[in-house]
Amino acid sequence: MKKKIVKLNQLTKIIQNLKKQDKKISLCHGVFDLLHPGHINHFEQAKKNSDILIVSVTADKDVIKGPGKPYFKEKLRMKSLSSLEVIDFVVISNDRSAVNVIRHLKPNYYFKGTDYKNLKDDVTGKINLEKKEVEKFGGQLCYTTGQTFSSSEIINKEFFYNKDQNNFIKRLKKKYHIKSILSYLEKLKNNTPLVLGETIIDEYVFCRAMGKSGKESYMVMHEKKREHYLGGVLSIAQNLAAISKKVNLLTSLGSKDSFKTKIKKELKKNVNFKFISKKNSPTILKKRFIEEVDNTKLLGIYSIDDKNSSNLEEKIFIENFKNFLKNTDLIIISDYGHGFFNQRIRKEIFSKKKFTAVNAQVNSFSIGYHTITNYKKADLLLMNETELRHELKDRDKELSNLDLIKKIQKRIRCEYIAITHGKNGASIYSTRSKELVKVPAFARQVVDKVGAGDALFPVLASCLKAKVPMDISLYIASISAAINSESYASKNILDKVYFKKFLEHSLK
After folding, report:
1. Could you tell me if 234 and 104 lie in one domain?
2. 240 three-class SS
3. Is 163 domain-assigned?
4. DSSP structural state of residue 373
5. Which tens digit of pLDDT belongs to each residue from 364-397?
6. Which residues touch 453 (CB under 8 Å, ≥6 apart)?
7. What is the 3-state secondary structure (H, E, C) of 241-254?
8. Distance CA 359, CA 368 (A)
9. Residues 6 or more apart from 41 whose CB is under 8 A from it?
10. Is residue 180 classed exposed, middle or buried when 0-12, 13-18 and 19+ CB atoms within 10 A define those classes?
């Protein structure tokens, strides 16, 4: 019995020899996360046109169907395929497309399913690239027919999603066509947001616990590595840059230990920024110590000067704010309570009739002093459930009866009130329609909750500004939070293609 699973360089030589014998070669490519009858039919039709059928498999690292995918690792997927009699060879593809495999093997036929026939629906653009590559060598792109199945749909329903998640997706698909949901993402690129707030650098120190000191009563840690991520409004601007043509950013940096070089280097090219220097202050640095074995957070140390903006800083802010406003239709405020915003600045912001979204966060520095009622004129206000209960001094009442939401709405009077509930998802209430929408959390494996709000919040604001239906808006925003939460801090900044593919496959 011949060896079916081979490396690409080995297979290239084998195919060259087979072609000298006038053998016709067909190639199929995909993830093949879960083999089903649709795949079998696809392979059988491909083999009818040829003497040799090769199946290339997308490597784990290149699968872009969302967090937690593929469900089965590449070795298991390849082994399953090799057991099928109709397949002659199986090879791994270390790329998001089959272009490199096609270039090496030069198949006579390259087969895709009929669901890939409309190249306009391919958000990655890879099918068109594959078509051009196979035709370059005189090959042909072909499509198989017959009943189709979706591995993503089966895995989502049977393995990934719980009852609440499946029920939500079912209701959403019943109400909207998948293509219409995905099309709303294209609306977002026309927004020109202005992001306001403090810059935060998140430093993660990964350690190994060594135990108690031999001489004194403290824990000793062995530092293994440390990483820095753009946090605060930088993270918000980066996420928005994936869905908007242009993003404006007005933020503060410290006059010392500013991280300015790193920030300028890493900010996406479509982020137009202006930094305000805070005199005699460092750029806010939030250092967290992580036990690398089980990813436990051991300690947080913040380098911060949370005094209020000076008169000069206030003046510079207002001048730059007015300049940015000329090319802005959406204002996004992330107030971490570290002194960047004051009453005069807030008054200036809300004097302009722009759609304004606010996330006023209560944290260890601002608790008891920082209040969301400073933003009574916002169009969207985002808070977590703890912040809501803290504001209303009520820890017990159920949110489902709307009493708490209506109570906070009387104090704030904004159009949309969005509340995050951690692992229980998020909800949003419209004071205009009197409708409450709940969306379950879609994170597959939460590595870190830091930065999840900075992913959800700007996407939600952008959707509502673009008049995307409220349930779709919160769903899309929740997906962005799920992507973020599967890495430390804001390491997983939104990638437009990955974002679209996650949305697409989550709806199957």
Report:
1. no
2. helix
3. no
4. G
5. 566 656 667 788 889 999 988 888 888 888 888 8
6. 359, 361, 382, 384, 420, 481
7. HCCCCCEEEEEEEE
8. 17
9. 144, 146, 147
10. exposed
pTM for this model (two decimals):
0.79
Domain housing 16: 8-158
Contact between 106 and 136 under an 8 Å Cβ cutoff? The reply is no
Could you give the CA distance from residue 167 to residue 164 in angstroms, rounded to a whole number?
5
Q: Is 151 within a domain? A: yes
Same-domain check for residues 31 and 86: yes
Residue 119 sits in the same domain as residue 260: no
Return the residue matching tokens 């601002």: 366
User: Across 338-434, where does the E strand assignment appear?
Assistant: 355-360, 380-384, 416-420, 426-430
Clarify whether residues 191 and 140 are in a common domain: no
Choose from 127-131, 308-312, 380-384, 492-496 the range with maximum mean pLDDT: 380-384
Residue 158 is given by DSSP the state I
CA distance 492 to 496: 12
Q: Cα(92)–Cα(57) distance, rounded to whole angstroms?
A: 5
DSSP states along 268-321: -TTEEEEEEEEEEEEPEEEEEEEETTTTEEEEEEEE---PPPPHHHHHHHHHHH
Strand positions, DSSP E, 23-124: 25-30, 52-58, 89-93, 109-113
Task: Judge if 402 and 264 occupy the same domain.
Answer: yes
* Cα angle for residues 473, 479, 485 (degrees, 5° grid): 135
The model's pLDDT over 247-288, given as tens digits with 9 standing for 90+, comes to 999 999 998 888 999 999 999 999 999 999 988 889 999 999
Taking phi over 0 as left and psi of -120 to 50 as alpha, with beta for the rest, 232 belongs to left
Q: Which of 236, 267, 172, 176 is nearest to 462 (CA)?
A: 236
The identity of residue 199, as a single letter, is: T
